[in-house]
Design goal:
The chain is mainly β. It has one helix and 40 strands. It has six domains: about 5-115, Immunoglobulin-like; about 125-185, Immunoglobulins (Immunoglobulin-like, Sandwich), CATH 2.60.40; about 195-255, Immunoglobulins (Immunoglobulin-like, Sandwich); about 265-325, Immunoglobulin-like (Sandwich), CATH 2.60.40; about 335-390, Immunoglobulin-like, CATH 2.60.40; about 395-485, Immunoglobulin-like (Sandwich). Helices cover about 5% and strands about 50% of the residues. Strand 6 and strand 7 (about 105-115) form a beta hairpin.
């Protein structure tokens, strides 16, 4: 009898017992209804409580004895419809005693508690693709085993990932278990064919990145890639979820050519230098297309070479600068105003200098009358020059008239400045009495002809503003003059 049938039976018996009790009470105390003590029970699977129902009426009290001493104080009960969880499977003589008017009546029934199966598929399993997994729930004598694929064998062999379950039924006592099976793909790993590298170079070994993978190289390192720079065998084991594959490659290191053209340098014009890139069993290519192991270089610029030995290539570059013998010219002897600057320049590229006072800059600024000389020397030769410099006192005189007459008689036709200054610069501006600018010029030889906008300006008073600079008695001055003057026709 399955569990559902047992529950229906219990319910029917309870209804019958309640009906008999109700009828007896309705007939009064003068009528004695005698009902034998009886009981029913359901669910006799171990691990689940068994339900009991007493079939009695008019009882003073009842007492159950479940014949299960291992359950302790739970071995007895005074409930009308108790439940009891038996300590273990087996046979038990359950007794119900009911007292009516102090008279006991007993009923004993032997029940068999069936051992409920306990299938155990173990923890979830992961395996490598292509390796079957056998599922075993454990022994269950006398039980019917059913798998998720409807098969009924004691074990199930699977090759596909998924969730699998098993049910075991022993006389209506059913238990089940579920397990998840995951198949990891066997990772692919390949380090390629054996190959060589050149001395001083390195090679990145990459077995191919795979998500969730772990890597173990021959030296115990665990990076996804490995840098090889010496000869030897290199291997890697790639693992995903316990699945792994191993790849090995042999790396050899070939010698690289040695090339050094020297440090960047300077050559003298007409004196080439020897650039040598010779290596045994090598081929060469220079920047100009030459295939010789060496060249002679004289012109300034970059020189480069690539040297090949087998599959190994090395190169170098050198920058050549070219110098000639120094040439120095300080200029002609000079007569200058006191304070007027003069810079003597002896610059030659890459040269060192020595002036008459021991200074070593490429330029020198005389300050007093005297004889000046310099020597300039570089790796290609030496040169020298000298100059006499004389300083005299100079005045800066600027004159503008107080009147002029632009009447086309060729006398006093222009209003202009007369200048006697060294290094003079100036700007002349003419304004009328209204403040309008009529004329401006920075050329001292240029002057105002008395016209404005193509017409003769009227007679009267005008104002000039002159801003100028120049050397005056050894000083460089900046001045501004503003004076009225008269235009007469």
């Amino acid at each position: 009898m399955n569990i559902l049938s047992r529950i229906f039976a219990v319910c029917a018996l309870l209804v019958s017992a309640n009906t008999l009790t109700t009828r007896a009470e309705s007939m009064g105390s003068s009528f004695a209804l005698i009902v034998n003590t009886d009981f029913i029970y359901s669910d006799t699977c171990s691990g689940s409580p068994t339900l009991f129902s007493a079939l009695v009426a008019g009882q003073d009290s009842i007492r159950w004895d479940f014949d299960d001493p291992s359950s302790g104080i739970l071995n007895t009960s005074t409930a009308l419809n108790p439940q009891h969880l038996f300590s273990n499977p087996g046979t038990f003589d359950v007794t119900l005693t009911a007292w009516t008017s102090g008279v006991p009546e007993t009923e004993t029934k032997t029940i068999f508690i069936i051992e409920t199966p306990s299938p155990d598929l173990g923890p979830d399993i992961s395996s490598c693709a292509g390796t079957p997994v056998t599922l075993n729930p454990g022994p269950a004598p006398g039980a019917l085993t059913v798998w998720s694929d409807a098969s009924s064998g004691n074990t199930l062999t699977v090759t596909q990932a998924g969730i699998y379950w098993v049910k075991q039924d022993r006389q209506g006592c059913i238990a089940s278990d579920t397990i998840s099976v995951l198949f990891y793909p066997v990772p692919l790993s390949s380090l390629g064919n054996d190959r060589s590298i050149c001395d001083g170079q390195s090679l990145v070994l990459d077995p191919g990145f795979q998500p969730s993978a772990t890597y173990l190289w021959q030296d115990g390192s665990s990076n996804p890639t490995y840098i090889a720079s010496t000869s030897g065998a290199y291997s890697v084991t790639v693992s995903i979820g316990g699945c792994s594959s191993t790849s090995t490659v042999q790396i050899s290191v070939d010698p690289s050519p040695q090339v050094f053209l020297g440090n960047d340098t300077v050559v003298c014009k007409g004196f080439p230098i020897f650039l040598d890139a010779t290596n045994q069993n090598a081929s060469y290519i220079w920047q100009n297309g030459s295939t010789n192991p060496f060249i002679f270089a004289e012109d300034p610029g970059f020189y480069s070479v690539l040297v090949s030995v087998g599959n190994c290539i090395a190169g170098d570059t050198i920058l050549l600068d070219q110098q000639d013998k120094p040439s120095v010219f300080l200029g002609e002897d000079s007569l200058l105003c006191s304070g007027q600057p003069l810079i003597l320049n002896a610059f030659n590229y890459g040269a060192t200098y020595s002036w008459q006072d021991g200074s070593t800059e490429s330029t020198f600024q005389p300050g007093v009358t005297g004889f000046y000389y310099v020597t300039a020397e570089n790796r290609c030769g030496i040169a020298a020059d000298s100059i006499q410099v004389t300083f005299v006192t100079c005045n800066c005189l600027v004159y503008l008239p107080s009147a002029f007459s632009p009447n086309r008689d060729n006398k006093n036709e222009l209003f202009q400045s007369k200048v006697n200054c060294t290094e003079y610069t100036g700007k002349l501006e003419i304004y009328n009495r209204m403040g309008q600018l009529l004329f401006e010029s920075e050329d001292p030889e240029d002057g105002w002809d008395g016209t404005w906008k193509g017409k003769d300006a009227p007679e009267g008073v005008y104002v000039y503003v002159l801003k100028y600079s120049g050397y005056d008695n050894g000083r460089y001055i900046n001045k501004r003059k503003r004076e009225p003057f008269l235009l007469v026709r």
